[in-house]
């Protein structure tokens, strides 16, 4: 479900006319549950990404573009829109196209690649975004208050990690699931969707990747975790990272549970929390 707002080729060309780029053909994407994403191709067969941001504000997109402009040394999309044009009060923007494919079967080389990317991202100190950090405990507890008091599956699990330190200490992606990265021959070709990027906690950001990349079904690949740790920071231990991994599970479970569009099952993340708590506890 990559497109929620349907646009014609003519409509999109009108929205991007300030870039002097014109699409000859248009393709709807199949990935994503939040924004509408199109792949446009010019007469010279150059591809671009056109996005309609369904829930983000204009300020959020300006923040994303400002972040991307500071990440020239990383494999991320380049923003091409000179101005943020609104379509039915929704921000739109044009980006460069990242070649490669989304991995449907994560392997250990890709784990190494994405972990090294996060290491580089978290070392960037040229920008400190001012937009809201939606991943901190304040926002978690705000979501938690929306849950019915009779539903204890979130609150009981949060007790295990309620003292977690989520100090803001790095530029983070926040949503680095496998469908936000592409590979060519197992080499990372790019990471995208920085719409919710902010100044937050780097271990949380790293843990979102662990939770979403290191499972094969419901089988956790411990060798993937070990490769991720050594590629990201050889001094980082399982004991240190465990509460962040559990928090990442619970955060996304709660986010999915409270989302109006329940396209993804929150119970998947609840199950991962339970699996990981048992496995990680056994290795400490």
Notes on the structure:
The strands form four sheets. The chain has a five-stranded antiparallel β-sheet, with helices on one face. Strands 6-9 form a two-stranded antiparallel ribbon. Strands 7-8 form a two-stranded antiparallel sheet. The protein is α+β, with helices and mostly antiparallel strands. It contains nine helices and eleven strands. Helix 3 (108-121) packs antiparallel against helix 6 (202-213), helix 3 (108-121) runs parallel beside helix 7 (222-232) and helix 6 packs across helix 8 (238-258). 37% of the residues lie in helices and 16% in strands. Strand 2 and strand 3 form a beta hairpin. The radius of gyration is 19 Å and the shape is globular.
Write the layout of secondary structure elements.
Layout: H1 9-15, E1 25-28, E2 36-41, E3 47-52, H2 58-69, E4 85-87, E5 90-96, H3 108-121, H4 137-144, H5 155-158, E6 170-172, E7 181-184, E8 187-191, E9 198-200, H6 202-213, E10 215-216, E11 219-220, H7 222-232, H8 238-258, H9 267-282
Antiparallel strand pairs: 1-2, 2-3, 3-5, 4-5, 6-9, 7-8, 10-11
Helix pairs in contact: 3-6, 3-7, 6-8, 8-9
Rg from Cα = 19 Å
Order of helices and strands: HEEEHEEHHHEEEEHEEHHH
- The low-confidence runs, each spanning 5 or more residues with pLDDT under 50, are none
Portion in strands: 15-25%
Q: What structural category do the secondary elements indicate?
A: alpha+beta
In whole angstroms, the N-to-C terminal distance is: 40 Å
State the strand order across the main sheet. 1-2-3-5-4
Query: What is the mean pLDDT?
Result: 93
C-alpha geometry: globular
């Amino acid at each position: 479900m990559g497109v929620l707002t349907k646009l014609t080729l003519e409509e999109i060309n009108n929205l991007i006319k300030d870039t002097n780029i014109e699409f000859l053909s248009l393709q709807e994407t199949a990935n994503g549950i939040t924004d509408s994403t199109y792949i446009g191709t010019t007469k010279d067969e150059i591809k671009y990404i056109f996005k309609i941001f369904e829930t983000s504000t204009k300020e959020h997109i300006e923040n994303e573009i400002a972040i991307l402009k500071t990440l020239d040394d990383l494999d991320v999309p380049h923003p091409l829109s000179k101005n943020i044009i609104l379509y039915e009060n929704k921000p739109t923007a044009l980006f460069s196209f990242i070649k490669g494919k989304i991995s449907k079967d994560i392997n250990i080389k890709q784990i190494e690649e994405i972990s090294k990317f996060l290491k580089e991202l978290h070392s960037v100190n040229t920008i400190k975004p001012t937009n809201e950090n939606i991943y901190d405990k304040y926002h978690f507890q705000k979501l938690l208050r929306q849950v019915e008091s009779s539903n204890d599956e979130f609150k009981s699990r949060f007790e295990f990690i309620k003292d977690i330190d989520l100090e803001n200490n790095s530029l983070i992606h926040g949503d680095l699931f496998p469908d936000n990265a592409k590979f060519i021959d197992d080499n990372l070709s790019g990471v995208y969707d920085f719409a919710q990027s902010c100044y937050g906690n780097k271990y949380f950001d790293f843990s979102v990747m662990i939770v979403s990349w290191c499972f094969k079904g419901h089988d956790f690949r411990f060798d993937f975790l070990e490769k991720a740790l050594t590629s990201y920071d050889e001094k980082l231990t399982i004991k240190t990272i465990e509460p962040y991994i559990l928090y990442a599970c619970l955060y996304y479970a709660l986010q999915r549970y409270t989302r109006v569009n329940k396209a993804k099952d929150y119970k998947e993340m609840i199950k991962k929390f339970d699996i990981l708590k048992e496995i990680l506890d056994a290795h400490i």
